[in-house]
Each structure stands twice: as C-alpha cells, then as structure tokens.
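Appendix B. Chain record.
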Amino acid sequence: MTLLEFDHVSKIYSVRGAGQMKALDDVSFTLRSGQTIGLVGQSGSGKSTIAKILTQLEVPTSGEVRLDGTPIPRRGKGLRAYRQQLRMVFQDPFASLNPYHSIRYHIERPLRLDDVVPRQEIEAEVRRLLERVRLIPDAVIDRRPHELSGGQRQRVAIARALASRPRLLVADEPVSMLDVSIRLGVLNLLADLQREEGLGVLYITHDLATARHFSDEIMVLNQGRVVERGPADDVILRPQHPYTRELRAASPDPEKHFAAASGTPGGTL
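Structure tokens predicted for this chain:
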C-alpha cells in the first residue's frame, strides 16, 4: 500500500509591499492508495498550495512530505521517480494540453519518458489508455486539443496522468471549467478509475456536493488551516465548525444537484 504523508506543513510567501503571507499553517494528513480525500475550501484557502507542494512546484517553509516513509527528493532520479508515482489532473483542460500537439503525442510522451512499456507497444498502450477514459481512439488520437470538447480534453488529461501508472492522483478542481451537463460523467470516470486501479486521490474542490459524493473523507481548509475533517457524510451532514456550516449553507443541496445532473427525481439532504 502506497502512503503519502503531509506532515505539519506550513508555507509562507513573501509579498512585495505587503510583507509575509501564510498560505498554509501546520497542515497534516495522510493519503493511502485506494482512498479518496476531498479537500474543500473557498478560493485562497490554501488548496492549490497543497497541490503545488505535493507536485514539488513549491517547497514547504516548514514540515515534510513523505512517500512510503521517505522524504520527497528535491532533484534528480529520486524526484523523477516520485513524480511517476504521483500525477496531477489540472483544473483547466484548455490550458493543460499543448494546442500544437496531437492527442497521440500527449499520451505517448510520459510513456516514453518513464519507459512504461517497450517501444513497440507504445501505440497499443496509447489506444488502451484512451479506451480506459471512454474515448474512441480512432476518433481522437490524431486530433489536436482544440478539436475536442472540454469533457473530451479532460478525459485526455486523465489518460495522460494515468500513462505513468501512478499510485496517487491530485485532481485540482478537475471539472470546474466544464459545462455542468458533463461534470458528473468526468467525476464518475475518476471514481471508477480510483476503484479499479486502487488509486489514492486527493480531490480538491470548493463544491461540497461533489466532495461528499466522491470522497471517503473530507478536510475543510480555511485561511491555510484544516478546521474540520472526518468521514464525508459526517462533515457534510453534521458540520461542527462554523466555517463548514457557512460553506454548506452556501452550497446547492447535494441530492438535488446530482438528481438534476442524472435526470432523476431529487431527494432530501
């Protein structure tokens, strides 16, 4: 079992003309393979800073991140091996794919860089990954990102993330840029992949409805601190912290939200 530990991490930024800003304040959690944690909070709460630290785009001011008990290397082969184990699905499928390259190129690249399969099997693996995210390979493989819909692009981004056969995924607001009508399909795909592949998923969102629906555990982040955490139903249905109650009051009814998306009659929360 893969275990990611985010241990007493703080992050302070120096802001010109404004001094120092604490983006994270002593945040700790563990993420195991086969588990989905929903990280919930408003914009500016520190969610994306956690994602950047996990992907080593930022370095903690204090604290430590460990994978299977070993601190994350800062450079070299060790960092590359870590990044192969933890991949990210970005918020914006319009910006995360290079418009000048084909879908084939986007998925081939991590396969080649990480030596996932023998060279002669790369074409078959690209097609397998596209099928894995419910795309028809012949219909998309030689197209460029602008020729696909937003939902198709995000599925390609998920296939690219899976290409290196990671054990952990960080999904940073993966459906917020998509039309409401296709969000549920992409989230159901992520949930299916998480179960079938045994992935650990950190699902970052401001949407309590999807967090409850897709997460085993929820952490609520406010001004860089975790103010509440627990099983998803407990946090959403019986929030203890005033900030969580405010978020819940401002959110759509989760049952009605998913009923509307699926076209079925809604129930009560």
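Further analysis of this model is presented in Appendix C.
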